[in-house]
Write a structure and sequence with these properties.
Layout: E1 18-21, E2 24-30, E3 38-45, E4 50-53, H1 60-72, E5 80-84, H2 90-102, E6 106-110, H3 114-119, H4 130-136, H5 140-147, E7 165-167, E8 172-174, E9 179-184, E10 193-197, E11 202-206, H6 227-239, E12 245-248, H7 257-279, H8 286-291, H9 307-326, E13 330-335, E14 338-343
Parallel strand pairs: 4-5, 5-6, 6-7, 11-12
Antiparallel strand pairs: 1-2, 2-3, 3-4, 8-9, 9-10, 10-11, 13-14
Helix pairs in contact: 4-5, 5-9, 6-7, 7-9
């Protein structure tokens, strides 16, 4: 039995402080991105002050939205003492990092985000570790285009660096009423964590479980080698725990985490079947398979996607092929630099 969730606006991006479960308010925040207009931050109270989960992409518009929502609840920015982040992507992390200097808040994130966070500033391009990975996938042209890709203006000069502390699976954060349990859920990124609030019957799922889309896999500077294996195991872990209200980073909250997790597992099962079937038609690389599949909810061709989304799509297929090899349904042959696959 899950907690009763408060009614939410039809438009999940509507500004303000929206109560979702007892002791928790959702604050939608604007994003400078095409195709993803907002991120949900979640406000809770501790004995020392306010805690904000995933406080968004740093900037004046973001801070104004948070300040307005806090004011409506009788708080001010100075009441914030801790920012908890589900993963290191800029739409979750950078406002929290900026506040370390301006508000002197504490910033905590999963320990396994450390490789990608520490790689920031050392890179020679937007995705320095993906060139060789894309060569392995047979996506030579995409690898070269990505290597030459310019950093977008909205990503320049964004404050970024290490947090104040690292969180491990099983860590607990004390609240005014109850506590948050840290649950490691690698897949979207290698150090992604979710926060379970058992007393409120809620799960702050970050990008691990989203209500209408499937998250990208290994979209980071230092990706792990087998992100889909990790992601599927992380989904199964949530199914083994009591069901809760789902409080995602993007999209409307919903009454059941388990319902959406089961849908995601079913989606990836179908995707594995699709990938295996395409190999029987003559495709031998992750890139060739990705070219034959539809992408996004609009079922678009690979070549019409933005460059970084093409990269993410090819890497996702590589991750599915890895799982098929693990299951014995596909054979792999490394013919440097390309890895080729065939139906077993």
């Amino acid at each position: 039995m899950t907690t009763q969730m408060h009614e939410q606006p039809e438009d999940w991006t509507e500004p303000g402080a929206h109560g979702v479960v007892p002791g928790v308010h959702r604050i939608p925040l604007p994003l400078p991105l095409t195709g993803l207009s907002a991120v949900n931050a979640y406000l809770l109270e501790s004995q020392d002050g306010l805690i904000l989960i995933d406080p968004g992409w740093t900037g004046e518009a973001n801070e104004r939205a948070i300040e307005s929502a806090l004011r409506a609840l009788g708080h001010r920015l100075g009441d914030l003492v801790t920012c908890l982040v589900t993963h290191h992507h800029w739409d979750h992390y950078t406002q929290a990092y900026a506040w370390r200097d301006t508000l002197h808040t504490r910033l905590l994130i999963g320990r396994d985000e450390r490789p990608s966070i520490e790689a920031y500033g050392k890179q020679t391009g937007r995705f320095p570790n993906h060139r060789e990975l894309l060569y392995r996938c047979g996506a030579t042209d995409l690898a070269e285009r990505l290597h030459a890709d310019e950093i977008p203006e909205h990503e320049k000069h964004v404050p970024y660096g290490p947090p104040d502390g690292w969180l491990d699976h099983g860590d607990r954060i004390t609240l005014q009423h109850g506590e948050l349990e840290v649950v490691a859920t690698p897949g979207h990124t290698r150090g992604h964590v979710v926060y379970r609030h058992s007393a409120a019957g809620a799960l702050f799922s970050g990008d691990h479980v989203l209500p209408t889309i499937t998250p990208s896999l290994g979209f980071e500077l230092a990706p792990e080698p087998r992100p889909l294996r990790s992601y599927l195991s992380s989904l199964e872990l949530l199914l083994a725990q009591p069901d809760t209200v789902l409080l995602p980073a993007h999209g409307r909250p919903s009454a059941s985490t388990h319902t959406r997790v089961e849908e995601l597992l079913h989606h990836h099962s179908e995707r594995l079947d699709e990938v295996a079937q395409i190999l029987t038609t003559g495709a031998t690389t992750a890139f060739e398979v990705a070219e034959q599949l539809p992408w996004t909810r609009h079922r678009r061709r690979l070549d019409v996607l933005a460059l970084e989304h093409q990269m993410s799509a090819v890497m996702e297929i590589d991750a599915h092929l890895d799982v098929l090899v693990m299951l014995g349904r596909v054979s792999a042959t490394d013919t440097r630099p390309v890895r080729r696959y065939s139906a077993a």
